[in-house]
Amino acid sequence: MSRKVAVAGVALSDVGRVDNKNAYELMAQASRRALADAGLSPSDVDGLASTGQGTLPPTDVGEYLGLKPRWIDSTTVGGASWEVMLAHATDAIAAGHADVILLTYGSTARADLRKGLRTANVNWGSRGPLQWDAPYGHTLISKYAMAARRHMYQYGTTIEQLAEVAVSARFNAKDNPEAYYRDPITIEDVVSGPMIADPFTKLHCCIRSDGGAAAVLVAEDRVKDLKSDPVWVLGTGEATSHMLTSQWDDVTVGPASVTGPLAFSRAGVTPSDVDVAEIYDAFTYMLLLTMEDLGFCEKGEGGKFVESGALRLGGSLPTNTDGGGLSACHPGQRGLFLIVEAARQLRGESGPRQVPDAKIACVSGTGGWFCSSGTVLLGSEEP
């Protein structure tokens, strides 16, 4: 079998400040909403993909949701997990292993921190290869900061250009009622903020929020049953790069340099065909480098590209139209939220932040410190 696959329904749970629900409740809320968006019921679901919470994901998630799937995935590669699992789900549906697959995620990262829970902070540990990094105190943010410095040195990228990524995200967030922060910020606001890891000040870093997201994928023969317009999966790519910082061949190149060409080739489109992009932005440099790696600008030209206002609504490539992880929401792993926003844009449901006549979206997730990448091309028209 080789069936076409569509995103049938998408939804978010309550997002931002959520003090009265746990992660499972957020997953359940987002899942119910996504199924309702598709016009389907839990009994239609025969595949489940989830990670990031619990003891044995997705086993415990399936039990909580009352599902008994015949296809499962819990690939865990950080923020890119959701794009990678979407790729796996697409292959499974195309091959006939499942007909309706639910991707779901929830996190109370902000609420847990407020409660002072030790589990609220990410600890990569020091087992396995990481034992060679741990003695040097390399944190996630310090690795990105170091890589950003190298890009600045090698290509002349300025701190103001990196700051524009955060300013653009806030510009886009202003019309999103679900965004955590909506008040405008300036380049000076970003540059003059408290230093977190040189050269990153506070606003160069993603926010911390609560929330859940879900997406439902279906085989082409189920499209006629849908309540909402289908969004078609055109092509995907997945890759890993390294685990140890010392094994990172070039900190100015990320694994999206592999997944981007794969996804575009399989979709039969080029970067110039893309109308809207949803790109993982845990830090400003993450987005800038990914734009280069995906081919939206030449290597080393990312600074000039974002400086032009390209990322803003009305720009040449509206990116993170909901405000991204820098302004809208970032509950631990954001990759599934990218898929939700892309689908909404392609269905023309984004209200004042809608990109006019958007037909093709590029979604790209990043995991770890550029350790993994998943890139997905989605389209409003059947391939």
Describe the structure.
With 383 residues, the protein is of the alpha/beta class. The protein has twelve helices and eleven strands. It has helices spanning 23-38, 59-65, 81-95, 109-114, 140-155, 159-173, 187-191, 256-267, 284-294, 302-307, 324-327, 335-346; strands spanning 5-12, 47-49, 71-73, 100-107, 195-197, 200-201, 211-219, 231-240, 276-279, 360-367, 372-379. The strands form two sheets. The chain has a nine-stranded mixed beta sheet, sandwiched between helices. Helix 6 crosses helix 9 and helix 8 crosses helix 9. It is globular. The protein starts with a strand and ends with a strand. The relative contact order is 0.20. The model has no long low-confidence stretch (mean pLDDT 95).
Please provide a brief summary of the model:
By secondary structure, this protein is α/β, with parallel strands linked by helices.
| Proportion of beta-strand residues | 15-25%
Strand arrangement in the largest pleated sheet: 3-2-4-7-1-8-11-10-9
Which residue ranges are poorly predicted, with pLDDT under 50 across at least 5 consecutive positions?
Answer: none
How much helicity do the residues have?
25-40%
- The overall average pLDDT, rounded, is 95
Secondary structure: elements and pairs:
Elements lengths: L4 E8 L10 H16 L8 E3 L9 H7 L5 E3 L7 H15 L4 E8 L1 H6 L25 H16 L3 H15 L13 H5 L3 E3 L2 E2 L9 E9 L11 E10 L15 H12 L8 E4 L4 H11 L7 H6 L16 H4 L7 H12 L13 E8 L4 E8 L4
Helix pairs in contact: 6-9, 8-9
Protein name: Acetyl-CoA acetyltransferase
Pfam family, one: Thiolase_C_1
Organism: Rhodococcus chondri
